[in-house]
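Example record used in the benchmark description.
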Amino acid sequence: CIWARHMGLPIGHIALATNANPVLSTYFQTGIWQPGQTTATLASAMDVGNPSNVERLFDLLPTANRSDSRLSASKVKDSQIRDSIADAWNRLQLELCPHTATAWQVRRWMDQDQPDQDWILVATAHPAKFEQIVEPLVGHSVPIPPALESLLQRPVERQEIEATLESFREALLEGSA
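Model output (structure tokens):
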């Protein structure tokens, strides 16, 4: 893959996992970049209909390499996210957040095609942040790590402003003083 060559690592296939917001998976299947409406899913941080970091992708993967067969993206539905959270717990006692579960599902599909292949799955968030989703699927409460607990104990600070550029500018200047 292009990233592996730049980093000097022996990386083979890179599989990206997306939720029901299919911009990336559609792009890798068709070669057409077509932003769309955002769909709310269990993997909420991935709920993006027009990813703002697409320029990074286009820079890393020039037009001539976009059809590289060692790079793919697959769409994962909420029902598959739930199933993946339960599967990871039942098989390995791993508690996954919904975002990591999208990658787990894609890994499961790839295991069917290439059962003897080694895989690395990159996790994103701690499952304790999504206790209402994860705990019913694993059958127990998920312990909150101390670092996350200290963040959750901090007071929430917010300031409401009018939805105008001038109000936004004033709030920014006020905060920098």
